[in-house]
Amino acid sequence: MDSGELIKEFLWPQNGFLFKEMELSPVLCKPKLIPLKSVTLEKLEKMQDEAMEKLKEMNEQQGQEQTHNQQDAPSTRSASPADEPGGPSTTDIWQAD
Questions:
Q1: pLDDT recorded at residue 71
Q2: Residues near 90 by Cβ (< 8 Å), separated by ≥ 6?
Q3: In what ranges is there compositional bias, type Low complexity (predicted)?
């Protein structure tokens, strides 16, 4: 060996590991719009609203029937001084002390 020559070491893939640096870059994609309410939640709310409307209609019909029945039926109650406004109010069955 000559004194002027430097010894070089060669690393081949068979002799060692090779590493490659990966740079991470942002991946752009379409924005996805997320609904505030799901389809099933909207269906449930619609069903609940319909049920409430039916209940209100039934209550109104019952109220109308009761007022109609009260107007048609003759009054069988006897007039007493307790029934008059401003008169003494007494309890028919018992009175709590």
A1: 79
A2: 82
A3: 60-71
Residue listed under structure tokens 């406004």: 85
Q: Which helix (H) or strand (E) element contains residue 72?
A: helix 39-72
C-alpha span between 70 and 76 (Å, rounded)? 11
Question: Does the pLDDT value for residue 26 go beyond 80?
Answer: yes
**DSSP class of 82:** T
DSSP string, 3-71: TTPPP-----TTTS----------------PPPSS-HHHHHHHHHHHHHHHHHHHHHHHHHHHHHHHHH
Least confident of 12-26, 34-48, 82-96: 82-96
